[in-house]
Amino acid sequence: MCGIVGYIGQHDTKETLLNGLEKLEYRGYDSAGIAMLNEDGMHLFKAKGRIAALRNRVDNAVHATMGIGHTRWATHGVPSEDNAHPHQSASGRFTLVHNGVVENYQDLKKAYLHDVNFASETDTEVIVHLVEKLFKKYQDTVKAFRQAVSLLKGSYAIGMIDSENPDTLYVAKNKSPLLVGLGNDFNVIASDAMATLDVTDQYLEIFDQEIVLLNRNFVDIQNLDGTAVERSAYTAQMDASDIEKGTYPHFMLKEIDEQPFVMRRIIQEYKNANNELKLDMNIRKAMKATDRIYIIACGTSYHAGLVGKQFIEKLANIPVEVHVASEFSYNMPLLSEKPLFVFLSQSGETADSRSVLVNIKKKGYPALTVTNVPGSTLSREADHTLHLYAGPEIAVASTKAYTAQIAVLAILAVDTAQAKGFELDFDPLQELAIVANAMEVLTDQKEAIEALASDYLATTRNAFFIGRGADYYVCLEGALKLKEISYIQAEGFAGGELKHGTIALIEEGTPVIALATQANVNYAIRSNVQEVAARGANTMIFSSKGLELDTDAFVLPHVHELLAPLVSVVPLQILAYYAALDRGCDVDKPRNLAKSVTVE
Ligand code: F6R
Questions:
Q1: What class does CATH assign to 445-592?
Q2: Measured in angstroms, how far is the CA atom of residue 26 from the centroid of ligand 1?
Q3: Which CATH architecture group holds 3-242?
Q4: From CA 53, how far away is CA 46, in angstroms rounded?
Q5: Does the predicted TM-score (pTM) go above 0.70?
Q6: CA 426, CA 83: separation in Å to the nearest integer?
Q7: Cα of 394 to ligand 1 centre, how many Å?
Q8: Superfamily of domain 248-442
Q9: What beta strand segments (E) does 421-579 contain?
Q10: Is the CB of 347 under 6 A from ligand 1?
């Protein structure tokens, strides 16, 4: 959450900062700001709202060769211009942007800054005042910066300018993501390579508790104790077109449509020349060695984990527990003798998941991260990584990463089953190819689903999704998609559980969307639909071909029953998209949310 860009060099600072912030808006979009230093001094521009608002504020006559920018997702203090970054020290000499949470900011205020007047309600402002305080003591910016950073507890990615020193950009990182991008006669910093991909594809990772001093043609990485660190650059494997909307009105729609391609890419990446599954031997060994898997994830990834559990238990015969990351540390279950932790995370940066990873690594347990971003924190810090190959997911509401997670977990389950010598009547590569075609059939039928959205969801206050077995897990995801982008209060329920309380909420016209893709519960879920229809619900059934009745709203193409979640979720994503659009919501950037949740 929150995005940072910084630039030092000879090109147009302003455009690099603003373009970069636009690419980082997915990380937060409630306010933004940039600071640029030139021979006339520091130029600071801030605006509440989106980068577009900031662009309108920026004085185009200002040209500079160094600057920092920030797009915010508020943690401490409301979204406002005062709370927007960059923040400045009392004298105005130091200017700083920060992503993360300074957990001990109240203590630092009391201990060092009781005589300082704060201009904002943020935790960030503490850092910049602290630098100035320590500068007064040491008369040395690097020393003051290093000392200030050493006092911080929590997470931070920081870019700082000292107006008296126009040749250096000061950078620090702990837990929050930050990269250095290398150019010809310039260098940049960014929370994500996609922010600066149009100026460079060469990047240097920064590790936790390192500080970096940048000038336009030199990068000096140091540990907090001042020891120099050598690191080679890598080429960012990202195509600039992956992060453009192209002809689509929204990234979410583009990403829904990309799902068949993602399935085919996963098939390609996980097969060898003989069309057999190809997986890292070490992952195979770890899967074979474990007696219980603990899947740790949040939100949509958690929902994908629930589906994945079924594959691993049914195909590979290993018990699986799926846990919400933010609860795991307090509600840690009794662990088995040989646990394997599997972290599911699109971004690979989610703080709640990372905190569990840090904990279990301290205890010496093995960890596998399944992520869309192989160089991400969760990927680096786990023993093994499985890549999702979904391509950058920009819309805040996750779609293609969810289906990619389920597909990769299916492959993992089958690979493990084969490694254990089980005979399976299930070829995941073949079945995923059928899924890809089925997804295409569905994405070609958007108009029919759009009509359902406008009939059922245009004016409703709430909606329910019901299903049994795997369908229940998809219902949780369908409800999350609908609520996060359309703000309709939506809940996913196990069909049989509704009558134990929640059915009290069913009124005349309440939309109830049911999934019927599992043969063994087809009659049972239809009885649940009858129960709510009898109480006035406006029901809509999505069934699989072969299980359908004439009265069903929509019939999904037939795929292997285990993989039905990959198909049944697609119309629910499309339904949510059109419901949000009908209501005039900002589909790609829903209120209060951000992608990549890097605060606990
Ligand atoms: C919802 C959504 C979130 C994320 C969750 C975990 O559409 O995107 O619920 O799934 O914040 O994020 P990752 O997968 O990056 O760990």
A1: alpha beta
A2: 12
A3: 4-Layer Sandwich (3.60)
A4: 9
A5: yes
A6: 55
A7: 12
A8: Glucose-6-phosphate isomerase like protein; domain 1 (3.40.50.10490)
A9: 462-467, 489-494, 511-516, 538-544, 554-556
A10: yes
